[in-house]
Amino acid sequence: MAEGLRAAATIARRDLRSRLRDRSALVTAFAAPLVLAVILSVALGGPDEGFETTIALADEDGGSLGEGLREALAGGELAEIVDVVEVADAGAARRALADGSALAALVVPEGLSESLASEAGGDLLVLRDPDAGLSGDLATAIAQGAANEIERGRLAVELAVAAGALPPGQGEGVAAAARARPAALALVDDDVEGGLSGAASYFGPAMAVFFVFFVVGAGPQSLLRQRREGSLARLAAAPIPRGAIALGTAASVGALAFLSIATLWLVMSLGFGARWGEPLGVLALAAGVTAAAMALTTFVATLARTEEQVSGWTSIIVFTLALLGGSFGALPPALEPLSLATPNGLALRGFVDLAAGGGLEVVVVPVAGNLAFAAAAAALAAPRLHRLVAP
Amino acid sequence: MSASSAPAGPPGPSRPARARGTQATTGPEVVLEAAGLRRAFGDLTAVDGVDVRIAPGEAYGLLGPNGAGKTTTISMLCGLLEPDDGAVRVAGHDLAREPAAAKSAIGYVPQEIALYPDLTARENLAFFGRLYGLRGRALAGRIDAVLDIIGLAPRADDRVGTYSGGMKRRVNIGAGLLHEPRLVVLDEPTVGVDPQSRHAILESVAALSAEGTAILYTSHYMEEVERLCDRVGIIDHGRMIAEGTRRELLAELGEADRLDLVVDGDAGDVAEACRGIAGVVDAAAADREVTLLVRHGRARLAEVVATVASAGATLTSVELVEPDLEAVFLALTGRALRDDG
Ligand SMILES: Nc1ncnc2c1ncn2[C@@H]1O[C@H](COP(=O)(O)OP(=O)(O)OP(=O)(O)O)[C@@H](O)[C@H]1O
Ligand SMILES: [Mg+2]
Questions:
Q1: How far is CA B124 from the centre of its chain?
Q2: How far apart are CA A105 and CA A71, in angstroms?
Q3: Are B72 and B96 found together in one domain?
Q4: In whole angstroms, how far apart are CA A264 and each of A40, A259, A286?
Q5: Highest-confidence range of A6-10, A191-195, A228-232, by mean pLDDT?
Q6: I need a labelling partner for A7 at 20 to 30 A (CA). Which of A87, A148, B48, B92 fits?
Q7: For residue A259, what are the CA distances in angstroms to A9, A216, A348, B187, B318?
Q8: Range of the domain at B303
């Protein structure tokens, strides 16, 4: 066991050393993601093209509470990213969500100001379009934040789901999930950024996640090359367990993936004012998506016969996942559920939530999702894994 | 390859001057013992019941044409490939049950250049040495010693990718010697190598053998095996068709001589026609060359020349060659050992 780990460490060091001397590996791990992240940030993150959302406000009450909400939404940084459309009542708010003219809605029921004043309490409704995905989440968080701002602690904020948008029962989950993310609110007030730094906070992680697949995909590919060149035979003749070959290679590309992500993180933060948020969360997301990428690319390599097949198939799959996952820009809201089925989309969701000021809890689902993805791909790869390290 | 290992005297690798006669088949002590090795790939039985025994310090040559099963046999001996049948013991350890102990006794030199081109020769050697448990000073000392043996100390810190083919071959061999194995297995180590490097490689193998390392050497170059090896196994279509010392194998030929003809015309027809000559034991054609095994070859020469003409070909050259392993292979199989130069 100890001998095997020692051998794996020896193999990992050798592999990493070769990789760091390979220009194309360096381009994949460092130059390409940085250049693309900068280009996309500058191109899509012009000063006026940051995050924007529309919130419908139905003030059935017409009292002081509605007035306060209006002011909260129109004040400070929120004014730059939120458009408020006034609608007549809850029904109109639901219609605005349904036709997409708003992504979240605040409903102040009639008499709420009064009942609050009389200490009787009452509900302010926050509605969201469950299909609006991430944009809906943010709009909801902003709306909730505004509500909290004016009635901190006194108001039960209830999240309802736009009528008919979700099958019964599922709405509960959405509501619960939204309630479970109070930290997002704090961030809404202070930290949601538009412009270049906002784009850099998005495209930095987006490119990091995209290129991680190529970085770790080079691992199984290098095993195939070593088989063709014969060095794998030499490893197989050495008194080491075969598992050490796989483990060492995985450790090497895993380390390179972390270096790649860390470099993007550093450069985008120092150079472009990006804020990726909670460092532990960033690390956890990086680990999750690296595991998923490793298992997926290994699975692809176990299916293919030649290195050309592997790199061809890997490219197609990685580009598809990146497009679906929003690495080149968020998908239209309707496609966002699909996006969350990809490792890229999951990780990006986590990165966006972290950048928006979320705590570690916002990465739990993305990291767990990616680990589950990794486990599934690893299970598929397992029966043929020995082929990769056989000489 | 180092100056110190080059013997004074006649050119060409010299047979080490040490007591011969320790025969694996008779001595109780063996470094390698393989019995009944068999391996099939689909319908093709690449190795079909091969036995090999090699004594400490013995140089054993495995000779056979392309595709005979040499690499497949070696792969099973070194633990790269599971045999379908048969067992291997190395230095007293069963390869299947104690793979680490058995593999530690072998220095494997693959047929391909199995090195990392991005790394220097020294880094390559250090890597493979570590896989065999060498560390620290012991490792550094062995790397220097091996660099000396392969004569590449001055270029040790250049990347292997910048080396010539012959230099790569030498590092390839060096990587199998780091842990001072009791048995060094070399799979066609001189393929595609310039004559000078080839000479140097044969020299260093001879030196290893002289120091008491057991050698398993495969080749389809008969001369190399004749020069280096104490004992030779001839393998064809996955079967060991003959085994013994050079003298023992040549004795199987009886009195036959080898006649090498080069003809203008159909070599196959010529070989066919020559089989009819009295005293011709065997005839094989390859390209424009015809190889004959003839009893009392000199006396039959005139008849051979006439037969070539009657087969509609012109004789370009004819050579009477002393019997060698090539002739043994021809006698055993009716085919030439190899069809390249
Ligand atoms: N992995 C494999 N799959 C299928 N067939 C194989 C495989 N390895 C070897 N063979 C076949 O087995 C036979 C023996 O091959 P092997 O490589 O052992 O020959 P060899 O004596 O080493 O030849 P050479 O002198 O060309 O190296 C050949 O017919 C070869 O095509
Ligand atoms: Mg071979």
A1: 25
A2: 16
A3: yes
A4: 14, 9, 12
A5: A6-10
A6: B92
A7: 17, 12, 18, 40, 69
A8: 256-322
Q: What phi and psi values does residue B107 have, to the nearest 5 degrees? A: -105, 115
Beta bridge partners of B286: B289
Checking ipTM against 0.85, whether it exceeds it is no
| Contact call for residues A64 and A114 (beta carbons, < 8 A) | no
B112 inside domain: yes
pLDDT, residue B146, reads 96
Residue written as token pair 């001055």: B154
Which residues of chain A neighbour B75 with C-beta distances below 8 Å?
Answer: 233, 391
Chain B residue with minimum CA distance to A22? B118
CB contact under 8 A, A237 and B103: yes
Alpha-helix residue ranges (DSSP H) falling in A192-335? 195-229, 231-237, 242-272, 279-303, 307-325
Q: Is beta strand B231-236 parallel, antiparallel or unpaired with respect to B239-244?
A: antiparallel
Separation CA A79–CA B295 (nearest Å): 108
Closest C-alpha to A281, from A213, A195, A361: A361
To the nearest 10 degrees (0 to 180), the angle between helices A64-74 and A133-150 is 120
Cβ atoms within 10 Å of B286's Cβ, excluding its own: 16
Mutation probe of ligand 1 site: the residue of B72, B76, B219, B225 with most atoms within 8 A of C-beta:
B72
Query: Of residues B279 and A158, which shows the higher confidence score?
Result: B279
Q: Which of B47, B71, B220 best tests ligand 1's pocket when mutated (most atoms within 8 Å of CB)?
A: B71
Nearest to A388 by CA among A174, A272, A219, A255: A219
Number of domains chain B is built from: 2
> Mean pLDDT for each 10-residue chunk of chain B (341 residues)?
41 42 52 96 96 95 93 96 96 95 96 94 97 96 95 94 93 96 95 87 92 93 90 95 91 82 92 90 89 86 91 90 84 73 36
A12: which chain B residues are within 8 Å (Cβ-Cβ)? none
Q: Bridge-partner residues for A357, per DSSP?
A: none
Q: Determine the Cα angle at B214 with ends B212 and B216, to 5°.
A: 150
Domains of chain A, CATH where assigned = 2-43+196-389 (no CATH), 53-192 (3.40.1710.10)
The answer to whether residues B155 and B296 belong to one domain is: no
Same domain, B151 and B91: yes
Distance B111 CA to ligand 2 centre (A): 6
Buried b (16+ CB within 10 A) or exposed e, B100-117: eebbbbbbbbbbbbbbbb
Distance of CA A207 to the CA centre of its chain: 12
CA of A380 vs chain B CAs: smallest distance (Å): 25
Residues with CB under 6 A from ligand 1: B 41, 44, 46, 64, 66-72, 111, 188, 220
Q: Are residues B207 and B266 in the same domain?
A: no
Cα(B164) to ligand 2 centroid in Å equals 22
State the SS3 of chain B.
CCHHHCCCCCCCCCCCCCCCCCCCCCCCCCCEEEEEEEEEECCEEEEEEEEEEECCCCEEEEECCCCCCHHHHHHHHCCCCCCCEEEEEECCEECCCCHHHHHHCEEEECCCCCCCCCCEHHHHHHHHHHHCCCCHHHHHHHHHHHHHHCCCHHHCCCEHHHCCHHHHHHHHHHCCCCCCCCEEEEECCCCCCCHHHHHHHHHHHHHHHHCCCEEEEEECCHHHHHHHCCEEEEEECCEEEEEECHHHHHHCCCCEEEEEEEEECCHHHHHHHHCCCCCEEEEEEECCEEEEEEECHHHHHHHHHHHHHHCCCEEEEEEEECCCHHHHHHHHHCCCCCCCC
